[in-house]
Please model this.
Amino acid sequence: MEVTKVTDICVLGDSISKGIVFDDLKDRYAVLNDNFISLLQREFGTKIKNFASFGATITKGLRIFEERYSSIKSHKYTLIEFGGNDCNFNWEQISVTPNAEHLAKTPLSEFKATYEDIIEKTMYAGSRPILLTLPPLERNRFFEWVSRDLNKDNIMKYMGGSTIFIERWHSSYNEMILELADEYGIQVFDIRKPFLELGDYSDYICIDGMHPNAAGHKLIAKYLREELAALE
Model:
């Protein structure tokens, strides 16, 4: 891949693209130095403009886009990665009222509409949007993580008695990303794929069940290296 192509890339996303992992030794979230963006930058000897933000939903992503519009329009490609925070629930509320209706942080219809807005505005700015899929959850770890210090039985009740609920719900947002790419005829980098191809990908996910760990970031970087090399 030509270096000029890499310098033409910026990133909109959440903690995945920001390079956030759970540091077991420090017992807190931290930025991984060797995150997939940093790994790609070092390999190609250039800088990728990264506007990713920890905890960002697609709605915050739109605000960041508008704030960074002048910079985004100067880049040929814009990688867009959202969904992991959007599909999450208020687990504390669920643990108290498992029989009530609970909405995700960003309901799927709103996620779709706001994502469409970002895609269209990116195209209007003259940058080419490329969507990133969601790395898969490790559903059992995720359940243990979000239910810590809460009523696990009530949360499991809301899930219908199985953590498969988490996996399917998360996948519905991933499917929407694929549908949007198809709807607009734009490229998608399926960073979910290399994880699923492993079969058991648990060694590549943090203890929280949702963030790729150092090995996971290397896996993403390896996949994106090939995808970026094929850009026209």
